[in-house]
Amino acid sequence: MSIRPGRVHLPLIGMQVERRFVTPPPPLRRYVDRIWSWTAGPDADLPVALPGTGAELFLHTAAPFTAVDPHGRRTRLATGHVLCPRNRPVVLTSDGPVGFVAVRFRVGALRHFTQVPLPDVHDQLVPGDEVFGPEARTLPERLAAFPDDAVGFRSRASLVARWLLTTLERHGTARRPREQLVDAAASRLYYRAGHESVAQTARALAVSPRQLTRLVGGAVGMTPKRLQRLARFHHVTRRLLVERRTDVLRVACDGGYYDQAHFIHEVTALTGLTPRTLFTPAVYRSHFYNPRLPDRESIDGSPATWPDPRRRRRTWTAIPTTTRPAR
Predict the structure, then answer these.
(1) Fewer CB within 10 A of the end CB, N or C, for the chain?
(2) Residue 11 falls inside a structural domain
(3) What is the mean pLDDT of residues 119-138?
(4) Do 239 and 123 sit in the same domain of this protein?
(5) Could you tell me the CA-to-CA distances from 54 to 57, 265, 303 in Å, in that order?
(6) CB of 185 within 8 A of CB of 201?
């Protein structure tokens, strides 16, 4: 499947979804993977949020999500809410057109933007103002004032980036040496999941496995082994869905699973479904997994320049991506 410059084509049958992505400005890139948006009509099928290590802030410019628990109980979420690291799937629905701007935080990085301990919010959907303060309650309304097009997304992403920079500087934890070690540990555990043991990671960071467990557990809220387990599942699932791969076992083994039995066991333990029942055509059509973005470039290879936060001039490039119905 070819990708034209500047566009990511994800053939979602029967509906039209517009996704736009941008890499964050340099001071945020260690903590934020991307700022992105999703716009779709009321007939769009929302994906299930599968287990994962990352946190995501959703700022809704249209109808907010409704979460459905395993017993069928429905809870309407706030217009700004945080999808926290989770050990189980989260079912989401919407009562109208879908529109949001989201911030995808790197593993463990949410703690640099809030005083709420990450272990306290795992497996939860938390209102944004409870995590970031009252300003997060007003952000969705401010974002909704901009149009749902490429120009509007530039303005929305710029507003969110400025707010994130202010919040990061206000908390000031990112500059502490211990916190930088935690960031390095969490990042290595995440990106090398399935290919490096916890003991090997500890040696690479010049700490003992026990020290690594204390560092990561206290800041991120899960053991290194658990983080690796969720990250391995995330990497394999993203590759399957983004690349639309059907050779599931080969991708799973490339991602660090020993064999078919190991993969089936892990998928069933994390989702309650076997791979055959999880990776259905509907899941391939609608998901929140996005292609990786280069650290210093936009997805189409052009420089992702951002304005100096000390200046008013805006001279950066957003990345419009449009998904059209498959013919």
Answers:
(1) C
(2) no
(3) 93
(4) no
(5) 10, 22, 26
(6) yes
